[in-house]
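Saturday, quiet lab. Running sequence design on the structure tokens for the scaffold JK sent over.
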């Protein structure tokens, strides 16, 4: 019997794809991309922060936040205002519409959580969360670059010619 390879990785990709497609459909109903949902949540709790502060909280590049903020602004969910004390700095605020959409997305996320975990006991949910935290930590330990063998380096050189 052949041993299946990369089962955990395939399951993680399947899980990610399945949930993302559902969340994408739900969020697009409100003119959002799933990646914008955390922005609304952070702005709800940190009204008036800068784009740089938001990027740091999200763990992404400021340029990524700029694009999302522009799109959220076009949809009337977020507004950018100059800081009272430092006019060079812009502060981000949820609009009234942004607050309403954020509230609706929170309700959807709560419903999704209930649906995903139906028939799980409290102990199983606790174990699942612990396993997922460990997987996330372990993924963080995976090197982003790989060491090429001499043979691979030679092959790469040959391809360039």
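Result came back. Writing it out in full:
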């Amino acid at each position: 019997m052949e041993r299946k390879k990369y089962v955990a990785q395939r399951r993680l990709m399947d899980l990610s794809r399945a949930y993302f497609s559902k969340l994408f459909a739900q969020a697009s109903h409100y003119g959002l991309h799933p990646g914008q949902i955390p922005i609304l949540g952070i702005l709800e709790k940190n009204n008036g922060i800068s784009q740089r502060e938001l990027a740091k909280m999200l763990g992404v590049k400021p340029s990524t936040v700029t694009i999302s903020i522009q799109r959220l602004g076009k949809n009337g969910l977020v507004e950018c205002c100059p800081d009272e004390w430092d006019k060079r700095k812009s502060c981000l605020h949820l609009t009234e519409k942004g607050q309403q959409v954020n509230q609706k997305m929170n309700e959807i996320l709560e419903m999704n959580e209930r649906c995903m975990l139906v028939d799980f006991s409290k102990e199983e949910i606790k174990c699942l969360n612990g396993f997922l935290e460990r997987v996330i930590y372990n993924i963080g330990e995976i090197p982003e670059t790989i060491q090429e063998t001499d043979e691979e380096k030679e092959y790469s050189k040959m391809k360039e010619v």
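Notes for JK: The chain has one domain: 7-119. The radius of gyration is 21 Å. Ask whether to fix the surface positions before the next round.
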